[in-house]
Amino acid sequence: MKVYCEWIEGFAGELVTKGLDRSFGQSQISASAGPWLQDYLPPDYRVSINMAKRIYFCFHYQDVIDFRANVVRNHWMTKPDREAAGFFDWSLWESAEKTGTVAVKRLINGGLRGSSVTCVLIGSQTYLRPWVRYEIMQSYRRGNKIIGVHINSIPGKNKLTKQLGPNPLRYLGITYSVSGITRTLHEVVEGKWRKYDGIGGSASFEGPPVGERFRDKGFKFSQWYSVYDWKADDGYNNFSKWVG
Question: How far apart are the first and last CA of the chain?
Fold first, then answer.
């Protein structure tokens, strides 16, 4: 069920020709790979090849109550020298929400600090949660590798599974200006795309010019980031590979 990035499928042969194993995946390709990648990969999306040690998990708290989210997090924490962020004590989260959005953002930003991978645990309502969207957008801005993991296939505390929930990455995206310098974040609200200004009050920001194939175009995050099913894709044995 792995969702390969569109651009990888388009030039797998080119990757091999240039000496890069396509099994590395998109976000594992280092910026040092060479300027030839400029035609395909936005420079602000390149990260170095480093094994993840600290993962930020984002999720809907209902999936913690149902124990599904805990399964993935606890599995990761059984490995040596691993850290997990994002699992804030509910009382701390509730206190931040009562204080206001600035406090919540400060809590999330602190959790993201030092992380290299963001794992979106996908339940039934995850795609609708405003703070999950903020966590994903902020992770993109940070340059974190992002993956999604469906967890409804994990039996909940009632011992039952559920139909897989919508992929949150399909409801978030980015557009590039004609010059390739300006990026603008977008989200789907009530079935329509609109600018996402939840980070710093502005949806747009500047970065190094991207290649021609990205200019004056828009992309859903689901086109770029891999999504797995914890059960169908054997997350117990493969999770470290997904985030590596």
Answer: 18
15-67 residue pLDDT tens = 333 333 333 333 333 333 333 344 455 645 544 444 557 889 999 989 988 99
For residue 94, how many C-alpha atoms fall within 13 Å in the half-sphere facing its CB? 4
DSSP-assigned beta bridge partners for residue 85: 56
Label residue 139 exposed, middle or buried (CB < 10 Å: 0-12, 13-18, 19+).
buried
> 3-state class of 196 per DSSP?
coil
Q: How much of the chain is in helix, strand and coil states, percent to nearest 5? A: 40, 20, 40
CA-CA distance, 27 to 48, in Å (whole number)?
Answer: 8
If we measure between CA atoms, which residue out of 166, 143, 149, 132 comes closest to residue 2? Answer: 149
The residue assigned the tokens 């962020």 is: 85
Q: What's the CA gap between 240 and 203, in Å, rounded? A: 33
DSSP per-residue letters across 12-26: HHHHHHTT--GGG-G
Q: Are 180 and 206 in contact (CB under 8 A)?
A: no
Ramachandran angles phi, psi of 183, nearest 5°: -110, 145
The pLDDT tens digits of the residues spanning 226-239 come to: 999 999 999 999 99
* Threshold 0.90, pTM exceeds: no
Gap between the Cα atoms of 45 and 47, Å rounded: 6
Quick one: which of 127, 87, 76, 93 has its CA closest to 236?
A: 76
What is the distance between the alpha carbons of residues 133 and 146, in angstroms, rounded to a whole number? 12
> Which residue is listed with tokens 């890069």?
20
Which residues on adjacent β-strands are paired with residue 155?
none
